[in-house]
Structures are given as C-alpha cells and as structure tokens.
Design goal:
Chain lengths: ~325, ~290, ~325
C-alpha cells in the first residue's frame, strides 16, 4: 500500500534540490576573505515512498547537504540555488517552521543527544507528546526503563532506535539521515536499514546519506553518487547490481570497480580540495575520457532512466 | 552561535597582520611600563616634597593628579609608588618562579612520592585564602618591606608549579621525545633540545603573568597596613591614606593612583596573554 | 559504589589538608618575633605573675613547639580558642559575632555575582564576537585586574560621598543603640560593601560561563536540537543551562578563597565590623589567638567550598559514574 502511494506521487517529488551551492566565507592569511565552496551546483530530488541514498567518500561535504536542507548551516555559510518542498519554494523561514515537524533529521550517533537530559524527555522534544513517545518506544522495542536513562547508558542498537523514534515524533514527510550506520556492526546496520525501508514504505521520503555504497545499493531505490561536493550521477539501485556498463558516470564506474565483490581496484588519484577545484567537470583530472570540452559548464542531464553530469556519458 | 560548524571545521589561524599588531602592542606596553619603572626608580624624594600652600588641590594644569593633604604632587607620588611596587613584584616573581620551576620540574621528572608531595604542598598553599596567607607570612616576619616581599614571593608559586609540571609531563610523554630516546639520545640532549625549548615559553609567560598578581597583592596588603611602611610612597599606602580624605570629597586621591595601578596590572596581563598567543596560536581560547 | 569510594577518598584527602593547614598557620605565627606569652595576653597586661604562669601552662608555653601545638590543638578542639587581646573577649565569641555580619555580606555578594555573572556569561556567549560580547568581556577583564579595595574606595567616594545614596561605613547608623537597629538599617549599610565584594568574583564566573557556553553551543547536540525545531531561546533554556549551570555553580563554590580575601579588603574600606576587619585588626595588633582562629576559620571556609564543588561534580553529572575522576 505504501508503495502505491509512492507511485501516485511520482510526478511531484517531496524535495527537489536544484543547482545548490554552499560556500563558507572565512579568513585566511591576513585580512583576505576567502569563499570556500563546499557544495557545487548539486541537484537531486526525492519522492514519497522512496529512499534516495547519497553515497560518497567521507569528508566530501555530504553532511553539509543535510544541514543545508534543514537550514542549520552556520552563519558564515552562503547558499545559492533553489530548493522546493512539496512543490513550494523552500526558504529559511519555511525550514525553520517545518524542521522537527514534517522534516526530521536522524544524526549519526548518540553524540547528538544532550548528555544530561533523560531519553524520554529528549525523544519527546518540544513538539511531541508523552503518549506518542511511549507508543514509539513500544514499537521499537524500547522498554520503559529506557525513558529514564541518559544517552551514555544506551547501547549502539538502542541509540539508533531512539534517534529513529525521535524523528517519528511528529508526522515526518521527509527524513534526512546522516550516516546512520557507522559504528554499527553489519547485523545492526542491516537492522537500521530495514527500519528506513519501513519508513519509506509508509510513505515517507527518505534521504539517506552514507559513505557505504554497498549498503546504499542494497536498501535504496535510487543512489546519488556524490563527488567533491556535487552529485555526478543518480541511478536506480538496480544499475549498480546490473554491472558497470549500466552506470553512466566514469566516477560511478570506478566506484563500482572499487567494490570488494568486484575488482576491488581503488580509484586512482584523490578528490580535489574544496579550495582548488577545476573549472567544469570536477572529475576531469582523474578521468580517462577527458577532453577539451570538460572544462566548460556541464549540466545535469537525463540518460537511460537516471541522471548524469558528464558530456561523454552514453 | 551561527558559527558552529565553521569554527570546528576550519581552524582559525593567527593572522600575519595580527602578529604585527601584537608586536607593536607588546613594544608600546613594555615602553610604558619600563618608562614608569625607571622614572620612579631615579626620582629623587624631593620631586614630591611637602608644600602646605598647595595642599589638597584638585587635578589641574600644575598637578595633573592633584595634590594630597601635605601638598605633595600625586602624579609623581603615584609613579614612584608604582615603581616601588614593581621592584617588589620583580623580586617576588623572580623567587616565586624559581620555586615553581624547581618544584614543577622535580614533580614531573621524579614522579611518584615527589610528585605527590609537590601536589600536596600546592593544595596546602591553596587551602588558605591567599590574602590570609599573605598576612600570616608578613606577620611572621614582623611586617614591613621584608615581610611583604617574602609574603608575595612565597605565595605565588603554586599555580605556576602546576603549569610547569603539566607542561614537562606533556613533553616527556610526547612522540618526538620518546622517539629521541629510542634513537639513543642522552637525557641531557633530550632535555636541551626538546624539553627546554618547549617548556621555556610557557614558563616565561607564566612568570610575566605572575607580575600583575604580585603587584596587586603587594598593594592589597600594604593597603591593609601589613606591607610597606606609611612613609614609603607605595600605591597601597597612597590609597590607604586617601581613605581619610575621601569622606570630605577629595576623590582624586584614590581615583588616579588606582587607575595607574589598574593600567599597569592590565598591561602586564595583556603582555603575558599576547605572548602566549604569539608562541602558541592554536591554544588561544577564541 | 565507585562513586562512594571516590567521595570518601576526596573527603579524607581534604580533611588531612585542613589539619595540615592548621599546623602551617600555627607554625607561621609561632615563628613570629612576638614572645609567646605576650602573644597570649598582650603587652599592656596587668596580670599577676601567678596568673601568667597559669596561662603559660594552659597553653604549654614553656614546652617545645610540638607540645605547644598539641596543647593548643587540644584546647582548640575542646572549644577554648583563647582570649583575643584586641577585643578583650574570647576568640570564639569575637569570631561568632563578626561571622554573622560577614556571612550576610558574603552570601549577598556571592549570590549577586553568581547570578549576574552567569546571566552575562550566557549573553556574551550567545552574542559571541559582537559588540555586546566584547563589552562584557572587556569589563570582566578590567574588573579582574582591579584591586578590590580600590573599587571600594571609588564606590565610597561616588555613591556615599558625592551622591549620598549610601552611608559611608559601619554596619548600622552611628550612635544608634544595638537593639534599635532595624533590618532595613542593616541591609542599607550592607549594600555598598556587598556590591564591592561581588566585583571580586563576577569576572571569573562570567568569563567561565561564557567559555563553557560557547563550547556547549558548538556541541553536536545543539545542532540536533536546532534540526528538531528548537529556537535559540529554547536551545538555551533546554540544553544550554542544563549543561552549564552546575559547572558554573561549582566554580562559584571553588572561589571561596578569593571571597574571603576580598572580605578583608572590602570591610576595611567600609569599616564594616565583620571577620575581615577583625583579621586586619588582629594582624596589626599582634593578636595571635584571634589571628590563628580566623586563619583556621578561613581554611575551613575554603575547605567547605572546595568540598561542595567536588561533591557537586559527582552528584550532579550522571556521567560521573562512568567517567570516574574528573580531576
């Protein structure tokens, strides 16, 4: 049933991010003010009933994307581009109104909980009720004792369920989960991902940010490949299972090769640093197909049921 | 609050022009303090001699800080007084810092019982209010100049001892020192090449940061009557005298000498803090 | 269990320290040039030789220092703290009377500086880097460097002499019989000294709170709170205060040493008849019994503050059980 609802809404995504750039202004060496661009013209969209995984290596700015969607970037951050939520323009004021209500954030660990506040009160938050909290605790198998505990007393598995329960306190339409699985063993990670699948099947749009492509492919409907602050390709998960030729972007193919069950061949070279990016395609320095045109503006285009930001992709 | 992530992610470095600014400030502050010090040191007593025709004049062109009940110029008396306080503070900081260095290094290097004993002594000295301890020591030595100098010298070592101890401990367990030992360097060579260069800046700033406390405490117990004798032009004496005249509205007797004292204390403090920043930019609390 | 053990250990260590402090104070006064007998009865004593001999044996004055300390400590524990030379009354009575005044003064100053310092610390942290923050910070740094007695003198000459809002000194109107003095008289006379005394501690609390609050604001759980829809005010009330109040209170308890030092200066400036001015008088008058009594009281006071601070850490923070020792 959940799936059906997802089908109906396919026309209109819950969240659309178009050409989003985020930069931080900071002082370096003397009085020179520098703008450090961390996200570059990033585009993606996520629909109700769907899990979109954003996969990319650690430290490439994925969390900034989550913070930008929630409107909790620090003051020296500057945002460009457009975001739409349920088809409406999604500005800072809207974000402030909707976060914690329709838009929920699931952080990576128990470090995001106030160490001195009891779990029950914390899960309830400012907008929840005691009844709802009890209901969710029962649903996720957290006993009454858990309510009275402090964050440091939680086990890894309990912490995860507590964070998910917090996200569901109010009627969440969009869930942004930032690396919800690191530190969990494989069994628990699978368990967590099952929870996300369930949320999506209930009609939520889930944006799952992760560094683990393997896990992403297994649970998500679509995977957005994140590279140096932008999304280079969005593909149905099936394409990753089908093989490297089903993928579109050279970086995605290289990532596919790097998976342990395939050739386990690391991608050569390193990601460019946010302060010294090339013009045009960000992957060009490491790309075998590089040509003169790669230095120009590369738009995101649709290709074989996915999207890609590469002029050579066929 | 808006700077949450950026502060953590992008490290704030000490800027180059901040560095020059700090240097200029340090020089100016040093010139001012040394100026006061030498001016006072070489000032003859007759510079602020008694002149009953000019008594209790408010601040004006002839006497910038006004005059006291004996017609003495308050500016000159304050300068002289501050300079006397500085001598005591230098002496006290010198003695205190040697004790702190010896105790701190001994605690860190010898460890075990010695470490325990030093820490215990530090706790002991901090167990009595500082001012009470000052009074007790000064009382023991029969008050006066000797008493105040000894009191100030003997009570300012505990905090610096803690700093030195933790610094030495930190260096000793650091990777590069351990590596140096592994490479067969002698203890002496390690101490000379690694430990001293690392601990010295911390120690020097610590000593400089002792001055303001020493000056303030000297003034405090002199004010209470335990320090310098009443015929000495010390800041504490000046302020203590001013108490009798404040009720009749002679506010300048307290205001200006106090401001000079405050300025000196703050400048010493700022010099110490800025040196700290200069030597160890990553450790600033901003 | 772990907690209890730590508690017991702390209490034991601190008590040992308190005893050592008493010995140290005793030794310091012992080493003073004043003749022990004179120290007990004063210089202008008219006592007979017989009485002098009695006092001598009571305090063990003819014995070596160790025995003398034992005699003194024994008497002290039994409640005989000696006779104050300056006030011609038993030391215990003098301290008891004066402590009442000082206690009121210190509590008022302690509370005032704590509350105001905590609040301005939060404001500075929230407005970090802005003008208001810089003003608060600058003000605190100045206050920390300003000698207490000088601040007192300035208050005195401005508020009491020039503006005439407050009395110039003492704890009650001059010439008024003790039984006629009202509570409002007392409070009226206490305001300026209390204000002066609170200046001693306010800088420390403010700067500490500011620092701690900035740390907390940078914590990930604050980001999460914001992501869950909390406003800045809600974040401060729900998480900021919860995470900073107890550390600040602890710092405030640990500052009893400065508070006691400040009281000697503040009371001297305002001729306030508390324990601080008694300390000065005892020191200047060579009143060894009183000086010793006050020194020990001050050590107990500091001890109580530190012990409370230590206990607060253990009792309040639930993580203590896991983290173990904090210091």
């Amino acid at each position: 049933m959940g799936h059906n609802r997802g089908e109906d809404k396919k026309k209109e995504p819950v969240l659309t991010v178009e050409e989003l750039s985020v930069s931080f202004s900071m002082y370096r060496r003397g009085l020179k003010k520098e703008n450090l661009e961390v996200l570059h013209k990033l585009s993606l969209s996520v629909q109700a009933g769907e899990i979109l995984a954003v996969a990319g290596s650690s430290g490439s700015g994925k969390s900034i994307l989550a913070h930008a969607i929630l409107g909790i970037l620090p003051g020296n951050a500057c945002m460009e581009g457009r975001m739409l939520y349920q088809g409406k323009f999604f500005d800072a004021k809207e974000k402030a109104k909707l976060r914690g209500k329709e838009i929920a954030f699931i952080p990576q660990s128990v470090d995001y909980l106030d160490p001195l506040m009891r779990i029950g009160k914390q899960v309830t938050g400012i907008r929840g009720t005691r009844e709802r909290q009890r209901e969710l605790f029962r649903k996720y198998g957290l006993d009454e004792d858990a309510e009275k505990k402090y964050p440091y007393e939680l086990s890894g598995g309990m912490a995860r369920r507590v964070l998910i329960a917090s996200a569901l306190m109010n009627e969440a339409q969009l869930i942004v989960a930032d690396e919800p699985t690191p530190g969990l063993d494989l069994g628990m990670a699978r368990e967590a991902l099952k929870d996300f699948r369930e949320l999506a099947d209930q009609g939520c749009a889930v944006l799952l940010i992760t560094h683990d492509l393997d896990l992403a492919v297994r649970v998500a409907d679509r995977v957005a490949v994140f590279y140096a602050g932008t999304v280079v390709e969005t593909a149905p998960s099936g394409d990753f299972l089908a093989g490297r030729d089903a993928l579109r972007h050279p970086y995605s193919k290289a990532l596919w090769d790097a998976l342990p069950q395939h050739e386990f061949k690391p991608v050569s070279g390193t990601q460019p640093y946010a302060g010294s990016l090339p013009e045009g395609c960000l992957f060009q320095d490491r790309c075998a197909q590089r040509s003169g045109l790669c230095g120009g503006y590369i738009p995101m285009r649709s290709l074989r049921g996915g999207e890609v930001r590469c002029i050579h992709a066929k | 609050m808006e700077r949450t992530v950026s502060d953590r992610v992008f490290f704030h470095r000490l800027k180059i022009n901040t560095r020059t600014r700090v240097m200029v400030f340090l020089c100016l502050a040093a010139v001012y303090l040394l100026g006061i010090f030498f001016w006072g040191l070489f000032m003859p007593e007759r510079a602020f001699e008694v002149n009953y025709t000019d008594k209790l004049l408010p601040p004006g062109a002839g006497h910038l800080f006004g005059t006291d009940f004996m017609g003495r110029d308050m500016l000159l008396r304050s300068v002289k007084g501050l300079s006397v306080s500085m001598v005591i503070a230098f002496l006290a900081a010198g003695v205190g810092s040697v004790i702190a260095l010896a105790a701190g290094v001994a605690a860190a290097v010898l460890g075990g019982r010695v470490d325990g004993f030093v820490n215990w002594c530090v706790d002991l000295c901090m167990g009595i209010p500082h001012l009470v301890l000052l009074i007790l020591i000064s009382f023991m030595l029969g008050r006066g100049e000797r008493g105040v100098t000894a009191a100030v010298a003997l009570t300012h070592w505990p905090e610096l001892t803690r700093v030195v101890r933790s610094e030495v401990l930190g260096v000793r367990s650091s990777q590069y020192v351990l590596a140096a030992y592994k490479m067969g360097k002698s203890r002496l060579s390690v101490a000379w090449n690694h430990v001293i260069p690392h601990v010295l800046p911390v120690y020097v700033t610590g000593v400089i940061l002792l001055f303001p406390h020493a000056i303030m405490h000297e003034a405090s117990i002199t004010f209470l009557g335990f320090g310098l004798p009443a015929d000495k032009p010390a800041i504490g004496v000046i302020l203590s005298e001013s108490m009798k005249y404040i009720a009749s509205g002679n506010w300048w007797l307290a205001l200006f000498p106090g401001i000079m004292l405050l300025t000196a204390i703050m400048l010493f403090d700022a010099i110490g803090e800025n040196l700290k920043k200069l030597w160890n930019p990553d450790n600033g609390n901003e | 269990m772990e907690r209890l053990k730590y508690l017991g250990k702390t209490a034991f260590r601190m008590t040992a320290l308190l005893i050592a402090v008493s010995i140290l104070s005793f030794l310091l006064l012992e080493a003073s040039p004043i003749d022990p007998l004179t120290a007990c009865i004063g210089t202008d004593s008219t006592l007979s030789d017989r009485a002098k001999a009695e006092i001598s044996s009571h305090w063990g004055l003819d014995q070596p220092p160790v025995k003398r300390f034992a005699a003194w400590a024994g008497n002290f524990i039994r409640g005989d703290w000696g006779e104050s030379i300056t006030y011609k009354k038993p030391v215990k009575t003098v301290i008891g009377e004066r402590l009442k005044y000082s206690f009121a003064l210190m509590s008022a100053a302690w509370l005032f500086s704590g509350v105001l310092g905590y609040l301005s610390g939060i404001i500075a942290a929230v407005k970090k880097g802005r003008l208001l923050d810089r003003m608060i910070k600058g003000f605190c740094l100045t206050l920390q460097s300003a000698p207490t007695f000088w601040i007192g003198l300035l208050f005195l000459s401005l508020f009491a002499v020039r503006l005439g809002w407050f009395p110039i000194g003492l704890a009650a109107p001059m010439g008024k019989a003790a039984e006629d003095v009202t509570l409002s008289d007392r409070i009226y006379h206490m305001i300026l000294p209390a204000f002066t005394l609170s200046v001693v501690g306010i800088g420390k609390v403010t700067l500490y709170t500011r620092q701690k609050f900035i740390e907390i604001l940078n914590e990930e759980f604050m980001l999460y709170a914001r992501a869950r829809g909390e406003s800045t005010v809600q974040m401060i009330l729900r998480h900021g205060i919860r995470n900073t109040l107890m550390p600040a209170v602890t710092v405030q308890f640990a500052s009893f040493s400065e508070l006691f030092g400040g009281i000697a200066l503040a009371e001297t400036v305002f001729s306030y008849p508390g324990i601080g001015s008694a300390l000065t008088a005892a020191g200047l008058g060579g009143d060894v019994p009183l000086l010793l009594g006050i020194a020990i009281c001050s050590a107990v006071f500091v001890f109580a503050g530190n012990l409370t601070a230590n206990l607060l850490y253990i009792v309040v923070d639930p993580r203590q059980a896991v983290w173990g020792r904090h210091f």
